[in-house]
Specification:
This protein is mainly alpha-helical and 237 residues long. The longest helix is centred in the N-terminal third of the chain and has 27 residues. The protein is globular and about 50 Å long. Helix 1 packs parallel to helix 3, helix 2 packs antiparallel against helix 5 and helix 3 runs antiparallel to helix 4. It is 68% helix and 4% strand.
Amino acid sequence: MITCCNLLSGCISIVLICNGYALAAGIMIFMAAVFDFFDGFAARLLKAYSPLGAQLDSLSDVVSFGVAPSFIIYYYLNQQPTADSLNIDISGFNLVAFAAFFLAIFAALRLAKFNIDDRQTTSFIGLPTPAMGLFVASLPFTLNNDHLTFMGNIITNTYFLLAIIITFSFLMVSEIPFFSLKIKNLRFKENIYLYILAAFAVVAFSLLGFAAIPFVMIFYIVEACVISRNVASSQAR
């Protein structure tokens, strides 16, 4: 039931963005993330693990964190003036905007890999799909933040949006290890990277509110890449 609420939130998000309500669409993706957290929490609490639950969770995530964010990117790409040199207009459709749905494709590939990869029990190989979804869902919050008005022309820029599509599509199916955001114990040494991320998030949220989420996600990605590089360097020695 909780997982289906995740799926329903993703579907509502798509309906909202199709009607031009970008901020509300982003909120529904955040709601999907809440349900996505609590379905796993409930499964562990009740010890109610099942193959059906695992498959339903991934199918819901494809919609809520793959398809719904793709529609948000498509919405912003489609807002670009037809005079934009990158736009290819055919019968009123901007074909370049359809590139947004590569996020949905690579989200599906990422989740399919996750389902058959036994290396991802305590951490992730490749950027988790919800992380990409939350990054995109937070863009409307950034655009509506009075302190970040200068970001408006950047976020809605065609080149920036295409860069998001390419970067996140690559990260989701990459072999870069990403640490889990779940705390199994409170030992500082075992959770040092998580504590660093949490400290950055607290400062960012206190300054920017929900508009801080893209910056927190970027920090998470950079931190994971630095950790991966340091591990690789130590192994090479």
